[in-house]
Amino acid sequence: MERGRPGWAGFRERFVASDPGLIRLLSALSTVCAVLLTLGVLAVPHAPVPILVTGALTAMVSTVAVTEPRPRDQALTLAAGVPVSLAIVAAGTTLTPYRVVADVVFVLLIFAAIYIRRLGPRATTLGVFAFQLFFVTQFVGTRVEQLPQLVLAVTVAFGSSALVRFAVLRSPPERTPTKLDRAFRLRLALVLDALIEVAEGGPEAPRAERAVDDLRRRTARLHAGALLIQRRLGTGAPDRRTDATLQHSVAQAETAVERLAITVLRLLWPGADIDTLTRHRAKLPLIGSALAARDAEVLPTLIAELRALRLAVTSGPLPAGADTGDVCHRLLGLRGDDERSPDVSPAMRDAFRCSGELARAVCGPRPDAAGRTWTPPGRMNAEPGPAVDAVPGQVGAGVRPTTRTALQVATGSALAIVGGELLSPQRWYWAVFTCWVVYISTASTGDVLVRGYRRLVGTVAGVVAGLALAALIGDAPWPAFALAILSVFGMYYTTAVSYMLMSFFVTTMIGMLYTLLHALTPGVLVVRIEETALGIACGLAAAALVLPVGTRQHTDRLLREVLERLRVVLTQSLARLYGGPGGSLLGPARALDSALDDLRVAMQPLITPASPFRSRRRTALAVLGLLETAAFHTRGLATAAELAPAGVHIGADPRVEEEARRIGRNLAALIGQAADGAPPERDSGSAVQPRVGESGERAEDAIATLRALRHLRSVDASIQGLARTLNTPVNGGS
C-alpha cells in the first residue's frame, strides 16, 4: 500500500518532488506573468495587434532565454539584450519589404547566432534574442512607420521580464539549496514507499513484479533528480561549504537507498540475479527459495526501520511528542549493531547494515531555510572537498561543434525558406522556425530525427486540439485568451519534460490566437503541419549532408568518456581505500554520472520504441544497462572509500589487486575500441592500478576489503558483459 501522505498533502509532496526547486513552475509562471504584464501596459495606449504580438513574443523570449543562475548575470544579459533586440527589430523591419534580401540576412543571422555560442551563455542568449526578434518582424510583417511603437513594445517586454524576474517572482539564491534538498527528500521518500510496499507484500504478493517495477521507476527518477540538483548547485548556494555539504548528502543518500533496495530484493528473491535497479536491463524472473524462518521473524523489524527512515526523510507526519531529531537519534543509535541477530542470514545482516548507511545519510547535514547547514545531534559536519571535474574535457579534431551546427542550421534554414515560400508564401516562417528548434540540444543526425519526429507528432495533436477547442468555445474571446495563456504556461512547464508535449501546447496556443483573430480555419492548421514537416525534412537534409555526425560516431565518443571517467573513479577510490591521500570523490563520481547521462540522451535515437532497428535497440539497451550497473557499483565503492573511518584500509589483498588489474586491462581495451578501433594506450596511469599498502589484520579492515571486493567483482562482470556485447576481446574472470 502507498505510504505517502494522503489527500492534498500527498499530492503537494509529489508535485514538489517532480519539479526540484520548482524550477519549471517558476519558469512557466514568470513567462505568463511577463506576457500578461506586457500586454496590459501596451493595451493602455491601444496598441494595434502587430505591436501586441511583438511585445508578447519578446516578453516570452526575454524571460526564458536568460539562463544564467546568478541574478547579477541575468541582469547584465537582459541589459545587453535591449540594444541588440532594438537593432535587430529595426533591421528586420527595414528589410521586410525586400523579401530576398531579408531572407539572405536571416540566414546569415542564424549562422551568427549559433556560431557565437562558443563564447558562453550570455552570447548564446543574445544569439537567441537576435534570431527570435528578426523572426518576429518577418512573422508580424512590421513596417518602418511602426518603429516607434515597436521600440516601445520591446522595451516594455524587457522591463516586464526584469520586473517579474527580480521582484514579482524573485527566487533568492540562498533558498536554492533548501528547495533542492526538500525536493530530493520527497523523491527519496517515494522510493522508500515503494520499497516498503515490496517488503510488506513479500515474494508471494500478487503485485510483486509490479511493485518491483514501481521501485525501479522511482529509483530512476531519484537519480534524475540527483543529477539535476548536481547541475543546479554550485551557483546558487550562499557559500561553498553549504553547496558541497548538500552535494555529499544527496550523493550518499542516493547510493545508500539504491544499495538498500537491491539488498532487500536479494533477501526476498535469493535466486534472482539482482545487482542493479536500472530499467534498461532485461527483466529478470523473480524466483527463489522462501525466506528462512529466522529471517521471516526479523523482517517486520526491518520494515519498521524502513518506516522510521521514511519518517526521518520528510520530517513528517510525526507521532505526538516526536521530532526529527528523536527519529535520527534512534536510527543512529541502532547503527553498528550488526551482530544483534547473529542467526539471521548474511543477506538480512546486509539489509540492516544498508539501512544504517541510509540513516547516516538521511540524518546528516542539510541546509536550513536560511541556506545554512543544519547538523543533527551526534553527527559531525566534516568539511567536504570540492566537486571538481575528474577528466579534462575532450576536444575533438576537425571542425568545432558550434561551427558545424551553425553551418547545418543555416543550410537547413535556407532550404526551409525556399521550400516554405513555395508551399505557402504567407506561412513560410513556420518551416524556418521548426528547422531552428529541432537543432536545439542535438549533436547527431539521429538526435535531429528523433526531435523532429516528436515535434511533428506534437504538432498534429495540437492541430486536432486547437480545432476541437475552437469549435467548443465558438466566437467567445475570453475563453480563447485564457486557453492561449494556459497553453503558454504548459509550453514552458513541459519543455524540460517532453518535447512532444511542448510542441502540442505551442500549436494549441497558435490555434487560440487565430481564434482570437477570427482567422482560424482547418486549412491554416494543415499548412502548419506541412510547414513543420518541411522544416524537419530540411533540418535532416542539412544534418546528413553538411559535416554530418552519425549517431554511432557520437555515441562512441561519449562511451569512451564514460569508460575513462569510470576508470578515474575506480582508481581514486582504491587509492583512498589503500590508505592514500584524502580528497573528495564526489566530483569524479558525479562527473561519471553526468557522462553516463549524456550517453543515455545520445542513445535516444537507438532506444526509442519507434526505432525500426530492433537488434540495435536491444544492443543499445544492453550497453546502457551494463554501464549503469558498473557505474552504480563504482559509486558504491567511492562511497565506501569516502565513509571509511580514518585508519581503515583494505591492505594488500591479492583478490582485490587481481580484480583491479583485470578491470584496468579490460577498460583499456574497450576505450581503445571506442576510439575508432585504436589500440589501448600503454600509459601506466591508464589502468586501474591500486597502490598497495600494508596488509590489514583488523576486523574492520577485513569488512572493508570484502565490500570493495564485492563492488569490484560486480564492475568486472559488467565490463566483461559490455565487452561481449560490443564484440571486444578482453580478459575473462579468474
Would you mind describing this structure in some detail?
The chain is an all-alpha fold and 734 residues long. The protein has 25 helices and two strands. It has helices at 7-18, 23-43, 49-64, 71-95, 99-115, 121-140, 147-168, 176-201, 208-232, 240-268, 293-314, 324-333, 346-362, 401-423, 429-437, 445-473, 477-493, 499-516, 522-545, 551-577, 586-602, 604-607, 614-643, 654-674, 699-725; strands at residues 366-367, 373-374. The chain starts with 6 loop residues before the first helix and ends in a 9-residue tail after the last helix. Mean pLDDT is 81; it is low at 316-324, 335-340, 369-397, 679-686 and 691-696.
In spatial order, strands of the major sheet run 1-2
Radius of gyration: 28 Å
Largest sheet geometry: 2 strands, antiparallel
Total strand count, please? Answer: 2
Oligomer: single chain
Helix residue percentage? 55-70%
The backbone outline, from C-alpha atoms, is elongated
Structural class: mainly alpha
User: DSSP strand (E) fraction?
Assistant: under 5%
The count of helical stretches stands at: 25
> Roughly what is the average pLDDT, rounded to an integer?
81
Euclidean distance between termini CA atoms: 45 Å
Q: Which ranges are low-confidence, i.e. pLDDT below 50, for 5 or more consecutive residues?
A: 316-324, 335-340, 369-397, 679-686, 691-696
Strand and helix order: HHHHHHHHHHHHHEEHHHHHHHHHHHH
